[in-house]
Amino acid sequence: MRFSIGRLLSVFAVAAVMGLGFYRSAAADDRETCKTGSGDAAIEACTRAIASKKYKARKQKRTLSLLYTNRGVEYERKREFDKAIADHDEAIKIDPKNPLAYNNRGNTYAAKQDYTRAIADYDQAVKLNAKYADAYYNRGLAKRNKGDWAAGDADIAQAKQLQPGIGAAAN
Question: What's the Cα-to-Cα distance from 40 to each of 13, 73, 92, 104, rounded to whole Å?
């Protein structure tokens, strides 16, 4: 069987397109695993998605910010607080209007018992999204941990007004 150069190039072009499709699919899978997975598998998926450079465009900045903050959450769960904070910092640098990144960094500071920094981040999350129940709830817990029970209770009440049932498992 003889192949012409044109036919051979066509075969390579099809293979390249199929490979590119696989790459796009893999990047999409990594993004989903980063978002919904947990532990090392999620960290690895986030890292691959970030490294793919697929989310570098200006219109993709929120997605890239979310990839970093999601990885930061997983580092926090592993008690690797410095890595978590670095990822949340990067998420905020990429998209300073992402309230989730501030809330997540606040959670990491709270886990380190640095309630002053945690409250500052929750303040910023609420400033960016006044209906962000999780940020109010987390800020309320941080204020309680600092000994300001009245302000903490007010924030928790606000969170419950925005999202009834929030914190039910924790209380």
Answer: 36, 11, 23, 18
